[in-house]
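pasting for ref
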Amino acid sequence: MGIKANGATVMLFNIDKSREKAVRARIYMSHKDRETDEWIVDLSSYAWFFGDAADVVRELNEKDKVKIEEFDISNRYDPEEKKEWWSIKIYKCKHIKRKPFVPKYVPEDDFI
């Protein structure tokens, strides 16, 4: 699956709000396999949030979800170390508010 332009929803972990101009957080994206009923990880990586996105994430807590609207992904390869680095920068996102839990069946109180 992966990140899609204007639509990827990710869950946030390890939010570092200590910097003034940016926020760093682990983003996590997964989907449920319909055949096995198991969750499959599509993406688990650190990302930088800048500008409006940083302001949004500063107000959130771990396990909150955001919808990514503008982002940039780049990579760098060091031939001497034979190592590749990926950088995910998010510039615009919005908080996805969770729906409150409403049980399907609420038993009536047994008062006489």
